[in-house]
Amino acid sequence: MLPATEAIAAELSVYGLILRGGFIFGAEEEAPPGPSGTPAKSALLVGQAGSAPWPHFLKWRASQGGELKNPLDTWAREVIGAVAEKFGARAVSPSDRPYLPFQRWAMRAEGLRPSPLGILMHPQYGLWHAYRGALLFDAEVVVEPSRDGVHLCDLCEGKPCLKPCPVGAYSEAGFAHQDCLTHVCGVLGEPCLEGGCLDRNACPYGSGYRYSADEQAFHMAAFAR
Ligand code: B12
Ligand code: SF4
Ligand code: SF4
Asked: Which of 103, 104, 149, 185 has the most CB atoms less than 10 A away?
């Protein structure tokens, strides 16, 4: 019997995580292994909208002794791994090497498109969402997310997200990772380090889902490490 996606979603919601849609791998496609070790037939994406998982993560981190190297990854692997085991799936993480194409999967599952910042733009959550894992199945498990087909960046006049960065790190040429890092770690980098990326915060959409200040500082610290 195929697992009920409602039951998976309910299990994930305990941790503030959500099912973000899924897709069936094509017959010609090179799919990653499913739980049996043969190529997976389908994938369901797991992620967050806004800071919903943050309090759950903080509670878990407080219960761990000592410093963990990648605590958010460790927490997500633990939580999503347990859900995978319960529903006969194999869990994978956006941090697994070699990197799995999470953004391409998300575009496919949710019909999203990238913003000028590279982050996928969501019609409801704006730039304030992320992927924490995926469940790979040996069977064709399907979930249909709501899609409204609107790409807000197409309608956005003036593109305020491309203005505040002091080093113009985002441009049509892509993301100047090193320029960003040098600024964030330099003497003038405190506003980014403490309050999050100025460009990301300048987007007017999905502001109700904006990550909390401490979550933004946590992600920037991990980025600048
Ligand atoms: C390596 C990596 C980075 C690298 C390099 C990105 C690059 N130039 O490829 C660096 C360290 C620069 C980076 C930074 C950030 N990243 Co990053 N990153 C990744 C990671 C782990 C792998 C990317 C990859 O190579 N995938 C493999 C290829 C084959 O997959 P793909 O889907 O085809 O690849 C797409 C991306 O590479 C994308 N892309 C290309 N350039 C850039 C630049 C940026 C900034 C982003 C977001 C995407 C992006 O274009 C490809 C086609 O769509 C992914 C997770 C994942 N597994 O995909 C997260 C991921 C893309 N990152 C993400 C985010 C949010 C960021 C940050 C904005 C915030 C943060 N995490 O600190 C920062 C930017 C810093 C800032 N100024 O705030 C999110 C995006 C979520 C979303 N809503 O779309 C992801 C999906 C992780 C997640 N857990 O959700 N990242
Ligand atoms: S400011 Fe405009 S162009 Fe930039 S991410 Fe937001 S909607 Fe897209
Ligand atoms: S974190 Fe700061 S330096 Fe980096 S892209 Fe955002 S605004 Fe620019």
From this structure: 103
